[in-house]
Structures are given as C-alpha cells and as structure tokens.
Amino acid sequence: MPELPDVETVRRDLDRWIRGTRIVHARSADRRVLRPNAPSAFARALVGRTLRDVARRGKWIRIELDDGTRVFSHLGMTGWWVARDGDAGAERFERARIDLRRREHDSSIRYVDSRRFGRLVVAREDIAEWSALGPDPLVDGIDTRTFAAALARSRRSIKDVLMDQTVVAGIGNILATEALWRSRIDPRSRSNALSAADVRALARGLRTEIDRELATRAAPDGAEWNDTFMAYGHAGEPCPRDGTPLVRVVQSGRTTTFCKKCQILRRS
DNA sequence: CTCTATGTTTAATT
DNA sequence: GAATTAAACATAGA
Omega before A36 cis (within 30°)? Predict the structure, then answer.
C-alpha cells in the first residue's frame, strides 16, 4: 500500500471519513504496531475526542485531535485503512479500530496490516520520524536548487538517495524506479554525478509519476493495485521506449528494473 | 519448499 | 567516525 500516492489517497479517504466526528471507542491490542505505546494509552488518548484534520508528509499520516493529541500512522508495507459500519465485524488482519459517532448512524475505521510493519503512534507533539522528513513533493514541492544540492552531497547511487526520506519524503521503490526510467538515468549512477539537466529531468519525472499514480487511484474503477508501470515489475520484458529487454539488479537489498540502453550511466 | 514483496531500523562490516 | 551492506521484522502469494 505505501508510497506517496497511495498514502495521499488514504489521507483523503480518512479526512472524508472522520473530520469533525467524535471518537466513542478506540481499541488495539497490537503492541508491535503501537510501539512504543501501550494498548491502554492508545484507547485512553482517543476516546471522547473530536477529530480535527488529517495531514501527510512523505509516507506518514498525522491525525490531529481537538485537544492537540496527534495520531501518526505509517502503513509500512501492507497497511491501509478502511471504513465500516459501527457494528461490522473485524477485518482479516485488523490491528486497530476507532469507532465514531455521527448524526444518525455510527461508523468505524479499521487499520488493517498483515505484515505489521506499519505503526500507529500517539503523541502530544510531532514525533522525530515526522520531523526528520525532507520536503514533500506535494506539500512543499520539489525545489530544484535544494534538490540539486542534496544530490550533489552524496556519492551513493541515485536510486538509494531518492529513497532517502530526508532528501525527498515519500519516494519508495516504485516511484524511484519509474522516475529514473522517465528521466533516462541509470539507477546505479552516483548521485553527485548528475548534471543540472539530469536533476531537472528527475524532478519532473517524479512529479509526473506521482500525478499519474494519483489519477490512477482516483479513477472510477478505483483500481488500487493495477500494474500501470513502465519498468517496475517488468524485468525481462521489452523497454516501452526502445524494446531492449529490461534488466533487474539489486541495490541496497531492493530490486531495481531498468533499461541499459536508454538509461545512461552518469560518470563524473 | 523456495522466492519475492509498495519499508524502516539496527547490527555488522568495510 | 562515516559509509555500506546485510539482516531482521511478519506474513501472503506465486
């Protein structure tokens, strides 16, 4: 589920479901997802409060309550939120539920996460993970000068640097793979070897791919996980641009798929 | 049974 | 000390 466009889609859903409602029950027994808080603290902080707004930076969602309490949600690899009727039974892999009172009938939102890499953190102020995030492409935009400076600072591969949440928040394996394909840059290129034109192309590629994925998720058929990618997940298939078979390499433990012909290795 | 997976943190190694 | 890399986490699906 996770990566900027997916998380933004969840943020919009949550905002629609919960803004202005009052929490009548809250429960989670999952110490792993709640870390470092205890289950009792989660319920105690939420019950009776009214939900204000839902913000997002990178892959983190921040829900603000009327007393200033903040609930941070990270979806990990397999997390998402669903809305149900107040009396609906538990979902498969449900890790937390928040029951809401609204005019006529009650509703309930559920956090579902099979692998439990996601987190739900209750705090009185912003948590370190949130504050450490770099600029968000939608909230702040990607400033070419700042972006270029950050890329020039590292000798790591451009693929690794793109996924560094302190450089740009919200880029995961898919966005990095797709943006590099769009900007015709070999993912193994050293970050500090990119030219000014490369940096501009990459910023554009990121923005284009984010907008495209957001539109895909907002489409009426609502497809959440349909394969609309040019390179990601297509190793061995022809590059949509020039037909050369896409190759697969592993960088920092993550699969990267790219075209050796049109994605050129930058060397300094 | 084996392999891979949209992510992050931490331990180990260079 | 900084930078890399591997392992770990927990579970599903091919």
Answer: yes
CA–C1' span, A4 to C13, in Å?
Answer: 24
Query: In the structure, how far is the CA atom of residue A17 from the C1' atom of nucleotide C2, in angstroms?
Result: 46
**Closest Cα partner for A201 from A217, A185, A223?**
A185
Stated pTM of the model:
0.95
DSSP H/E element including A32: helix A31-34
Torsional sign, CA A25, A78, A160, A246? negative
Please say if A254 is a catalytic residue: yes
Task: Clarify whether A266 is annotated catalytic.
Answer: no
Give the model confidence (pLDDT) of A48-86 as tens digits. Answer: 999 999 999 999 999 999 999 999 999 999 999 999 998
Distances (CA, A) of A194 to A81, A183, A200: 39, 11, 10
Measuring from the CA of residue A60 to each C1' atom, give the nucleotide at the shortest distance: B7
A255 touches strand B (CB under 7 A): yes
